[in-house]
Amino acid sequence: MTNNPDKINQLTALGVDVIERVPLEISANAVDAGYLATKKHKMQHLLKEVD
Q1: Rounded to the nearest 10 degrees, how much is the dihedral formed by the CA atoms of 18, 23, 6, 13?
Q2: Residues 47/25, Cβ–Cβ less than 8 Å
Q3: Among the residues of the chain, which ranges form H helices?
Q4: Distance CA 3, CA 9 (A)
Q5: From 20, 25, 30, 45, which residue has the greatest number of CB atoms within 10 Å?
Q6: Cβ-count burial of 46 within 10 angstroms (0-12 exposed, 13-18 middle, 19+ buried)?
């Protein structure tokens, strides 16, 4: 369970077969919208609910 593609890449590089990614996502609210947008745009996290 992750939204972090780097985590998937690191596991794969260590020889772990990643068969499926289960998204772990909540809707953004006024408090965390900026934080989630930063994760999506700067760290490439896979967040569909964030602009």
Answers
A1: -10
A2: yes
A3: 5-13, 33-42
A4: 12
A5: 45
A6: middle
Rg (CA), the chain: 12
Q: How far, in Å, CA of 32 to CA of 45, rounded? A: 15
Categorize the per-residue pLDDT at 38 as very low, low, confident or very high, splitting at 50, 70 and 90. very high
Average pLDDT, the chain: 94
pLDDT (mean) for 13-42: 94
What average pLDDT score do residues 28-47 get? 95
Residue 22 one-letter amino acid: V
Q: How far apart are CA 6 and CA 14, in angstroms?
A: 12
